[in-house]
Automatic annotation (TrEMBL):
Keyword Hydrolase: no
Catalyzed reactions per annotation: UDP-alpha-D-glucose = UDP-alpha-D-galactose; UDP-N-acetyl-alpha-D-glucosamine = UDP-N-acetyl-alpha-D-galactosamine
EC number(s) reported in the record: 5.1.3.2
Pfam families xref list: GDP_Man_Dehyd
InterPro entries: NAD(P)-bd_dom, NAD(P)-bd_dom_sf, UDP_G4E
Organism whose genome encodes this protein: Elysia chlorotica (Eastern emerald elysia)
Protein name (Swiss-Prot/TrEMBL): UDP-glucose 4-epimerase
Example GO BP: galactose catabolic process via UDP-galactose, Leloir pathway
Pathway noted in the entry: Carbohydrate metabolism; galactose metabolism
Length: 346
């Protein structure tokens, strides 16, 4: 019988690379497609260094359906792990059509090709953003979804609905929808990690760039929230724990689970200042910060109820906040400019 592959879309990106490492180490064969709009194939080279395995990778845009079909013709694919998409919240507010076209359009293309090739298993990267402002805490999977205020969040909600409809129409489909909380940190090797283009939008990549000297000072968005220290509280999850959640989801899908949804989080919330302190302690680096007004669209507090994933996937997080900070720092200090060489000073 010919070799079966897991197709990882967006596999050159932050979460994709970490998931590919865990999949390879669990014995799966992987093929990566990525259009490299927010990544470079250097990251796959690093994955190969870590695992000692070759990763067939193709520069393919999900919007190019013929190119996607070619991948399905070339490889015997049993399941798709779908990370590819755009994820910058602010940009999505400015360019909503780009986000709907890429995220929703790309996913519909992918699902159509999967159907054509009778590949009916998908694991999808959704986000806690689908919950909007929480009505209660911790947020479990039954919490209402869809009230998100930005186009990025809505693409995640719409894609969830599309996948649910596809599964309802044909019972041979299985889908695991994973709602990520706030992934941070990097692989222990320090070889792969988050590599934001331009000014990081998210907290921890910004903190790491301050520590490495690329930025002067962190701006803390709001100190007047109804939280213990007034700054926003989130559920930060180590990227390797998150990646291992995907291996657990693979096992679930092999049980022919239909369409299921899981939160991937720790269940614990930390404030912005907790994170700054933890990073300083873990790395010995001073992080200068200034308090500024709230960022538009932000909420005070959100953290997961991760019980369902524990009960049904047999998965829970094991890595501490300290490890998140240490591993992030190892990646950032070994690779101050991410995968790119240092820019010349001329
Ligand atoms: N990082 C987070 O905090 C977070 C939280 C919740 C959900 N997610 C979701 O998880 C997934 C992965 O996120 P990430 O942090 O690794 O982001 P990332 O940008 O590092 O990875 C996404 C990858 O998809 C590729 N891509 C984008 N459009 C594509 C297209 N049309 N065709 C093919 N490839 C395309 C990019 O080049 C990139 O490598 C995304 O769907 C994201 O929305 C991320
Ligand atoms: C509005 C927004 O962008 N939401 C996205 C953001 O959420 P989320 O806001 O949870 O994640 P961030 O990392 O951007 O921010 C975490 C916390 O740090 C604060 N902070 C952040 C950056 C900074 O420079 N200074 C600062 O104080 C924020 O106000 C927040 O309280 O990332 C999530 C995980 O990728 C996405 O699912 C969300 O859709």
């Amino acid at each position: 019988m010919s070799t079966e592959y897991v197709l990882v879309t967006g596999g050159a990106g932050y979460i994709g690379t970490h998931a590919v490492v865990e999949l390879l180490q669990a014995g799966y064969n992987v093929v990566v497609v990525d259009n490299l709009v927010n990544a470079s194939m250097e990251s796959i080279g690093r994955v190969e260094e870590i695992t000692g395995k070759k990763v067939p990778s193709h520069q393919v845009d999900l919007l190019d359906k013929e190119a996607v079909k070619k991948i399905f013709q070339q490889y015997k694919i049993s399941l798709v792990m779908h990370f590819a998409g755009l994820k910058a919240v602010g940009e999505s507010v400015q360019l909503p059509l780009l986000y709907y076209h890429t995220n929703v359009g790309g996913t519909v293309n992918l699902l159509e090709v999967m159907k054509e090739f009778s590949v009916k298993n998908i694991i999808f990267s959704s986000s806690a953003t689908v919950y909007g402002a929480p009505q209660y805490l911790p947020v479990d999977e039954k919490h209402p979804t869809g009230s998100c205020t930005n186009a990025y969040g809505k693409t995640k909600f719409f894609i969830e609905e599309i996948i649910r409809d596809v599964c309802a129409a044909d019972k041979e489909w299985n889908a695991v929808i994973l709602r990520y909380f706030n992934p941070v940190g990097a692989h222990k090797s320090g070889k792969i990690g988050e590599n934001p283009q331009g000014v990081p939008n998210n907290l921890m990549p910004f903190v790491a760039q301050v520590a490495v000297g690329r930025r002067e000072c962190l701006t803390v968005f709001g100190s007047d929230y109804d939280t213990p220290d007034g700054t926003g509280v989130r559920d930060y999850i180590h990227i390797v724990d998150l990646a291992q959640g995907h291996v657990a989801a693979m096992k679930k899908i092999q049980e022919k689970c239909g369409c299921v949804v899981y939160n991937l989080g720790t269940g614990v919330g930390y404030s912005v200042l907790d994170m700054v302190k933890a990073f300083q302690k873990a790395t010995g680096k001073e992080i200068p910060y200034k308090i500024a007004p709230r960022r538009e669209g932000d909420i005070a507090t959100v953290y997961a109820d991760p019980k369902t994933a524990e009960q049904e996937l047999g998965w829970k997080t094991t890595r501490s906040l300290e490890e998140m900070c240490e591993d992030l720092w190892r990646w950032q200090s070994n690779n101050p400019h991410g995968y790119a060489p240092a820019p010349s000073s001329s």
